[in-house]
């Protein structure tokens, strides 16, 4: 059992090391992208301050709370992007047919297709985000229990993100339109930058219960400040595990229906 | 080792009508029968070649045997496993090499991919070193394994693909068009390699190809497949015996011969005096040779078989 | 001139063959629109006057912003950089057709198609959510058209300039990414630029950013609040200044790029 875990870890480390070697070959791009991401982070942060300089509360959220929400969003978004970078490269693998050569290898394809492109450089960016997040949280009066609940729900949000990325892989086996699917996911996720309450009722409901962006980001922060009902906490866990199960099923169905490229 | 009984594979090809709503919600699809009740068995240490035109079902067969595709119906057993389940114990014993497809990581060196495969296939250090040495020696490729793969020529890259795929000494090797797109020298090198590899490692090798050269040089057993059906499964030499009805008789005439005398043999397909070539039916051969010996003054008489290519071509034509 | 009309029609045809992709693209643009719209709606619902904007004014701003967003900011010139890299650009250069004009008409087709769709989308959205439709002050329409044309050409030359990076580097996405981020925040598509504090706003007026998108949209949605605060002549002068700079820079780098580039690849 442990031997298996050790071996899988070793493979994962090698894949990550390779990924690092490849990205360091395009240093210029790396610098620009990182700069761009930092810029975007700072500019949007500035907007929050701009809005709250003229008003104390937005849709029931105070400045500090909105900041923590924004930082939580950044953390979850960046973390899942860092881990699952390889999913964005899935389509060329399917189209070229090189996917077949991965499927024939004696290890779980997810090691390569899901986690095989971990961007260590981006991971470094995650640290300042994390630092800022914790800084702002500890300035507030939060009970230990709320903080724990917050952490658990953030992990829960990451599970939803994982389910989504696995779902993309499953989809990618069935159709070549997945680039669009990934991009729509990113766009939808962006809606979570601000409290889900700012959207009018119907939209807000959709994005909480059907496409669980609200569950991923707004709920953990609400729990942190003690505003999350027990009902919603249960729902959060239910939906994440349901989506995870669904996505793995989709992958398995995809494998059976997979017709491979060319011949 | 490999047992296939009544294997059927149907592909669903989606038809794009061009009308947006139809394309999303009411997709029409066409069913293509890629494999039609295919059956065969392959044992240890065999080298089998699958040949057939494009779309015959060769690659589909290989992909089902290696577990990539899910069979629509029928029985498939490789090394006692159902390939689609992709059990680790199964995958560790096989290898798939596809011409024009790459498992090597293009931005890194071949050695980097080799090391990754070492972990994936759990090859111990000693075995890894030994196999790597043997394989690179056969190709004389010691230097290029440390060069970035994207800088290598197509032939060199293919050699690296071979090494990467064989480091773990698989018992069964699937080769799908391994020499396609390569220059003559690389093709030769790959063929020699496959021959040497089988001799050395005693693996079962299944090869698909368009090039009859590959087949003639390597395979002892030939499976001809077209439109999802097996047309022939046997040795290369036996195919001529079974299917060829034609022999070619070439004459170099000693002196001028009257046309009527020659035309009694038949209408020549080549008539460039002093050379004359006739296409005759096998069963007529004794009579014709006797006639030539009696009536035609010749310097040289050669009797040749029909080319294997022609035999196979006519096999496909007749199938229609 | 007819050949450019053909370019126009061809680009439209291309869209019709990539229908699904195109509609998904519009869906994505629309989803992106929801964030700033609802954010600012919520803010102005709570604060009756946010830096000069009330609910009605913000609705008006974002109505026209979504309507005009792709028309002004959208472009197909992003393809140029990869065409340079692959050598595909040679196909165009060897034809008797002006490179600049070709891409201008290609963009025009692209923009007009998206204009129709964005109007349709925003109209539908406002209908469904019973949001009152804004009106425009016709008095300022000439000003609007002036800044619209300025913005169109400014965007065109600026985008070309960024694409010409492909002549000197293989990493073509990097500068475009940064540019894209700067534009999405500072152009006025995420928030109306004049909600910024007065000093910051005056500073920004010296940069090319407000002229790219904010000013035309402002002129058609709620020009009254801006007119008294600024000197029309000086901002028009500033805008034209940037246009001239980008025009000459793109011509210059085009010539230089053609000379230096060795067209490797295929």
Can you describe this structure?
The complex is a heterotrimer of chains A (263), B (320) and C (266). Chain A has 263 residues and is mostly helical. Chain A is 76% helix and 2% strand. In chain A, a hairpin with a 2-residue loop joins β1 (57-58) and β2 (61-62). Chain A starts with a helix and ends in a 6-residue tail after the last helix. The model of chain A has no long low-confidence stretch (mean pLDDT 89). Chain B is α/β, with parallel strands linked by helices and 320 residues long. In chain B, the strands form three sheets. Chain B has a six-stranded mixed β-sheet with strand order 5-6-7-3-8-9, sandwiched between helices. Chain B has a four-stranded antiparallel β-sheet with strand order 11-12-10-13, covered by helices on one side. A three-stranded antiparallel β-sheet of chain B has the order 2-1-4. Chain C has helices at 2-17, 19-46, 55-73, 78-86, 89-93, 99-128, 141-163, 173-186, 198-204, 209-221, 224-227, 232-260. With 266 residues, chain C is an all-alpha fold. Chain C is 74% helix and 0% strand. The A-C interface holds A 26, 28-29, 31-33, 35-36, 39-40, 43-44, 47, 50-51, 54-55, 57-59, 177, 180, 183-184, 187-188, 190-191, 193-194, 197-200, 203 and C 20-21, 24-25, 27-28, 31-32, 34-35, 38-39, 41-43, 46-47, 50-51, 129, 169-171, 173-175, 177-178, 180-182, 185-186, 190-191, 195-196.
Total strands of chain B: 13
Strand order of the largest sheet of chain B: 5-6-7-3-8-9
Order of helices and strands of chain A: HHEEHHHHHHHHHHH
Overall pLDDT of chain B, averaged? 88
pLDDT below 50 for ≥5 consecutive residues: which ranges of chain A? Answer: none
Helix content of chain B: 25-40%
The CATH H-level homologous superfamily of the largest domain in chain B: P-loop containing nucleotide triphosphate hydrolases
CATH hierarchy: architecture of the largest domain in chain B: 3-Layer(aba) Sandwich
Number of spatially distinct domains of chain A: 1
Instruction: Please report which band the strand proportion of chain A falls in: under 5%, 5-15%, 15-25%, 25-35%, 35-45% or over 45%.
Output: under 5%
Main beta-sheet annotation of chain A:
2 strands, antiparallel
Unreliable segments of 5+ consecutive residues of chain B: none
């Amino acid at each position: 059992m442990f031997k298996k875990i050790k071996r899988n870890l070793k493979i994962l480390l090698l894949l990550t090391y390779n990924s690092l070697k490849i990205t360091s070959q395009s240093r210029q791009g790396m610098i620009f992208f990182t700069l761009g991401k930092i810029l975007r982070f700072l500019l949007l942060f500035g907007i929050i301050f701009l809005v709250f300089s003229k008003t104390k509360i937005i849709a029931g959220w105070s400045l500090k709370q909105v900041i923590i929400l924004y930082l939580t969003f950044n953390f979850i978004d960046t973390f899942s992007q860092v881990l699952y970078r390889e999913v964005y490269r899935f389509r060329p693998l399917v189209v070229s047919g090189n996917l077949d050569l991965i499927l024939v290898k004696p290890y779980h394809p997810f090691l390569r297709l899901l986690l095989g492109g971990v961007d260590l450089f981006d991971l470094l960016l995650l640290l300042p985000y994390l630092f800022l997040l914790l800084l702002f949280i500890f300035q507030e009066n939060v009970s230990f229990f709320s903080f724990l609940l917050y952490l658990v729900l953030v992990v829960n949000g990451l599970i939803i993100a994982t389910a989504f990325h696995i779902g993309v892989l499953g989809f990618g086996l069935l159709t070549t339109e997945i680039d669009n699917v990934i991009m729509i996911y990113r766009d939808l996720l962006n809606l979570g930058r601000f409290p889900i309450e700012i959207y009018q009722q119907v939209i807000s409901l959709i994005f909480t219960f059907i496409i669980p962006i609200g569950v991923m980001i707004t709920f953990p922060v609400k729990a942190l400040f003690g505003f999350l009902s027990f009902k919603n906490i249960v729902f959060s866990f239910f939906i994440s595990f349901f989506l995870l199960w669904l996505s793995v099923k989709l992958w398995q169905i995809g494998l059976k229906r997979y017709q491979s490229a060319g011949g | 080792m490999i047992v296939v009984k009544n294997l059927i594979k149907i592909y669903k090809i989606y038809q794009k009508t061009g009308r947006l709503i139809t394309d999303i919600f009411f997709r029409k699809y066409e069913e293509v029968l890629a494999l039609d009740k295919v059956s065969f068995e392959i044992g240890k240490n065999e080298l089998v070649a699958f040949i057939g035109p494009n779309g015959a079902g060769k690659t589909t067969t290989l992909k089902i045997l290696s577990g990539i595709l899910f069979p629509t119906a029928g029985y498939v057993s490789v090394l006692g496993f159902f390939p689609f389940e992709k059990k680790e114990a199964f995958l560790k014993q096989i290898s798939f090499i596809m011409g024009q497809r790459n498992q090597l990581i293009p931005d890194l060196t071949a050695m980097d991919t080799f090391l990754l495969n070492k972990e994936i296939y759990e090859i111990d250090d000693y075995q890894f070193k030994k196999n790597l040495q043997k394989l690179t020696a056969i190709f004389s490729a010691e230097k290029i394994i440390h060069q970035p793969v994207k800088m290598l020529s197509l032939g060199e890259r293919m050699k690296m693909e071979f090494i990467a795929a064989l480091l773990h000494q698989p018992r069964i090797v699937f080769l799908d068009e391994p020499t396609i797109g390569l220059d003559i020298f690389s093709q030769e090198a790959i063929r020699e390699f496959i021959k040497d590899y089988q001799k050395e490692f005693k693996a079962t090798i299944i090869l698909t190809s368009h090039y009859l050269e590959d087949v003639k040089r390597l395979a002892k057993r030939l499976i001809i497949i077209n439109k999802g059906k097996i047309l022939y499964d046997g040795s290369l030499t036996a195919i001529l015996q079974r299917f060829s009805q034609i022999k070619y008789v070439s004459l170099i005439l000693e002196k001028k011969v009257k046309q009527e005398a020659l035309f009694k043999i038949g209408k020549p397909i080549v008539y460039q005096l002093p050379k004359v070539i006739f296409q005759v039916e096998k069963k007529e051969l004794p009579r014709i040779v006797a006639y030539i010996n009696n009536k035609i003054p010749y310097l040289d008489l050669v009797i040749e078989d029909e080319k294997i290519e022609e035999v196979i071509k006519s096999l496909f034509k007749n199938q229609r | 001139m007819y050949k450019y009309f053909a370019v126009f029609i061809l680009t439209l045809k291309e869209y019709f063959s990539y229908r699904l992709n195109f509609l998904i693209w519009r869906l994505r643009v629309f989803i992106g629109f929801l964030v700033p719209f609802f954010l600012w709606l919520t803010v102005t619902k709570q604060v009756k006057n946010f830096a000069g904007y009330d609910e009605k004014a913000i609705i008006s701003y974002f109505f026209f912003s979504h309507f005009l967003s792709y028309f002004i900011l959208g472009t197909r010139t992003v393809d140029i950089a990869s065409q340079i890299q692959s050598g595909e650009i040679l196909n165009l250069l060897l034809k008797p057709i002006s490179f600049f004009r070709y891409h201008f008409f290609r963009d025009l087709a692209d923009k007009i198609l998206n204009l129709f769709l964005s109007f349709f989308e925003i109209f539908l959205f406002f209908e469904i959510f019973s949001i009152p439709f804004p009106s425009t002050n016709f008095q300022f329409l000439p000003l609007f058209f002036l800044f619209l044309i300025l913005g169109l050409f400014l965007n065109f030359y600026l985008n070309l300039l960024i694409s010409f990076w492909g002549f000197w580097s293989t990493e073509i996405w990097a500068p475009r990414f940064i540019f894209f981020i700067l534009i999405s925040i500072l152009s006025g598509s995420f928030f109306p630029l004049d909600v910024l504090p007065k000093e910051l706003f005056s500073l920004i007026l010296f940069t090319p950013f407000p002229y790219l998108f904010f000013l035309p949209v402002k002129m058609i949605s709620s020009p009254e609040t801006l007119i008294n605060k600024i000197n029309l002549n000086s901002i028009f002068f500033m805008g034209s200044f940037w246009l001239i700079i980008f025009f000459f820079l793109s011509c210059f780098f085009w010539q230089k790029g053609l000379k230096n580039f060795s067209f490797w690849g295929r």
